Amino acid sequence: MTTPSRSDEADPSVVFASARMFSLWRYAIGHSQLLLRSAPDSSNPERLDLLFEGVSAVQLVSRYEGLELHTLDEAERERIIEMSGVPARLRPGQLVLGLRSGSKVGYVHCLKASAYLGGTSIMGPSGPSESIDVIWSLRR
Questions:
Q1: pLDDT of the residue at 93
Q2: Would you state the torsion angle of the CA atoms of residues 92, 51, 8, 109, taken in this order, to the nearest 10 degrees?
C-alpha cells in the first residue's frame, strides 16, 4: 500500500507511507541526490523510487521494511539544519523529513522529495519509452 498524501489519521505528520521494502540505492554527494528504491516483485510489479534532491544531510539505514516519511517539529527541524551547516539565509527553503520503519528511524535534509512509480526493471528505466509517473512530491 502506498499513501501519497497526508491520510494517516493516527499521525497527521505522515506525508508519505508505503508498506513496501526500500533499499538505499544511490547516494550521489556531487549531485546532492539520495535514491531509495523498492524493487518490483510478485505483489508489486512496478518499481517505486523515492528521490531526494538538494540533499544536505542524511541519517539512514540501508533497508526499510515499510516506510513512513513524516514532518518533524520545528525544534528538531532547526537542530538538523543547524548541524548540517546550511547558512541562515538559505534555511527557509529547507525540507527535513523523518524516516520511520518499525524501530528504524532517520532523516533526510533536502530541497525536494518525490516518489516515482513505474518500470519493471530493478536497475532503472529500460528506455525512453518506459512510463514512470510522479505519484507524490514535496518541497518546502
A1: 87
A2: -30
